[in-house]
Amino acid sequence: MNNDLIVNNKLQILGKLTASLVHEIRNPLSVIKLNLEYLNMIDGQLNDEMRECLSACSEATYRLLFLIEDFSDFSKRQAHTPDICSINAITQKAANIMQISANRLNINFDIKLEENLPPVFFNKNKLLQVFLNLITNALECGNTQNVVHIRSHKKTCDEKDYIYWEIEDHGVGIEKSVQNKIFNEFYTSKEMGTGLGLSVCKKMLEEYNAEINFKSIPNAGSTFILKFNTTFPVETYVEQNTHR
After folding, report:
1. Which residue in 143, 146, 145, 162 sits closest to 154, CA to CA?
2. E runs forming strands in the chain
3. If pLDDT is split at 50, 70 and 90, which confidence band does 86 have?
4. Is the pTM of this model over 0.85?
5. Is residue 165 within 8 Å of residue 135, measured between CB atoms?
6. Are the CB atoms for 102 and 108 separated by under 8 Å?
């Protein structure tokens, strides 16, 4: 049998198994998430060690749920309502979620966000997922300087405003021989990776006319650069603000 046919057949089987697995995992995870949220309501009754354990469990649960959404978004196109949202606010939220992971790895976030950036037209949950994926990669890249830099700034080109979001690590970098593959579906250099993180990020960004690029030097680190268009229909802005 042709090798391409064998691979295609395996991918079809994988797709069916994944859909079933996602369904079976999502339900118990949702129960765990609800119970953790209940425990967070009595946070004041817990000591520091218990609060740290609770926070770690919550973070792990959210990461698993995001991973499941990676598979779901990859396998089918879902309707998501776009929002008028702040790049800086979602950046801070993502950094807060990943803070415990950063602490465990003894990595600091160096966050420099330009003030008064214009809003972007993007689904908030998807944008948070993109940032979480990229921050996770930056934390897991074998950082040698114990710092991850996150920046945002505005740039005007041809009388249009764009927002640039960057994340820079000091890790192992990406070998030149595979740099053209990192956005491919199922490609990963991680032993336990799914190969969906960057491909899903690219897909979600392109949905909203945003771009993702990178520059990397082997054994020195990588920088991922996102470019957001700040132009969106005026009627959308009016409509969303009318209903607030």
Report:
1. 162
2. 83-85, 108-113, 120-122, 147-157, 160-168, 211-217, 221-229
3. very high
4. no
5. no
6. yes
